[in-house]
From TrEMBL, chain A:
This is ACT domain-containing protein. The lineage of its organism: Archaea, Methanobacteriati, Methanobacteriota, Stenosarchaea group, Methanomicrobia. It comes from Methanococcoides vulcani. CDD domains: ACT_ThrD-II-like. InterPro entries: ACT_ThrD-II-like.
Automatic annotation (TrEMBL), chain B:
The keyword Methyltransferase does not apply. This is Homoserine dehydrogenase. NADP(+) binds at residues 17-22. Belongs to the homoserine dehydrogenase family.
Amino acid sequence: MRVSMDIELKDAPGQLLLALNPISELKGNLKSIVHHHEERTPRSTIPVQLVFEVEPENLDLIISRLEENGIGVARVDEKRFMEHGAVILIGHIVHTDIQDTIDTIDKTGFAEVVDICLSMPHIDKRSSASLKIDAVGRKELHEAMAVLKEVAEKKDLLVIEPIEAEVA
Amino acid sequence: MHKGDISMRKVRASIIGFGSVGRGVAEVILQKDDELKSLGIDLDVVAIADSRGAEINTEGIDLNASLARKSETGTVAIEDLTGEYVIRNVDHDLVIETTPTDIETGGTGLVNMLAAFENGRDVVTSNKGPLTLKYQELMKAASEADCKFMFEATVGGAMPIINLVKGTLAGNEIMSIEGILNGTCNYILTRMMEEKASYEQMLAESKELGIAETDPTYDVEGIDAACKLVILSNSIFGQNATFQDVEVTGITKITPESLALAYDEGYVIKLIGEVRKDRLRVSPRLVPASHPLAVGGTLNVASVRTDLAGTVTVAGRGAGSIETASAILGDVISIYRE
């Protein structure tokens, strides 16, 4: 997931390194650093804004190591879901337990159904639904699609996925 | 103009199969005689065969007369001879094989192609069946006999794909090819979206317009597209794939509601064939409405993903008598031009 974080450094040599080491040690991928060297907080510390990507389970550890190093963590803003996917289902979607279908995605822990739009033209006819799925990353979105296809096959639902090709 | 600089090459050809594609080939050869000569190719058709017999003239057949006889009597036949007999016994260089596709056994097409190679004749074909079933066997027979074997017309009709990848994009590593390889399915899906109509209604319309066949199974169940993927996989990725290796889902379950829901999200639904080294798949897919693959009507389209050239996309008419003949003519010229 992508994390944006405001930290506060003491005005002393080596402080930035103390702040960045825990992130790299826990396999965080740094995206940007804004170091406001001329500014001061009311506490006379230097404000720094970081953006990095990291596995969700490592975030708490990063924060506690930063604090151990004497770095103030003023704000943490995490954006859990980086990837958004759309998919269409066709079949007896409601009668094959739509809640269960959604749950199989939500239960993965790395992806969630965030929107569903359902069209049921006639009681005996096949329904159609468009689902939006958010996932932690690209790999996880693919996995969520695979999970969905597996459950759809059992319920005789047709899954229509997006093409692989990137927009040229 | 004196053309002494161009050495003229005499090419004697047979047209085996005189349905819509075979007749298109005859018309195109008549129409393009001067162009062929300017490329140094003096093409004579010395035999034509259809399912009821053959016409042979070693001096060169009058194609206008053959076309007229076919449309009047339903056959080109003058003698009661099979295509295979013609291939084995009439002295010529090139067999243009345009018999109907049989994907169960390869049918007469397979027999004809193997007979051509046995007798040292080059083959240009539009017939998918034999290539889908016996690709490696055919390639081996052609190379052992030192014969040329070209089949651009089997995939995508007039849309260039095999020669594009093997010729123009030579040297590139091909990662994948994705595209719409069946015009009938594209037409039905396009019309379902436009008219908010059911699959059954638009299938009926397609039949009426002659876009879908009376038995549309091959097209709408994705079998035709799957055969084309097999040919692409074998010819471009050097695989030994057969129809059984393709995951196939057709378009018969697509609802007008699903097309509308997809459109609300910025997508169209297309029957997409996808070839990569480890996967062959035909299935309905969501294509962003602004993506180059989102072409409508009966068009075919293919995106080739490469390491050097990036993604190259081509679109064109995937079927039709003259369009398919265009692909055949291109193959003939590339074999015999100096």
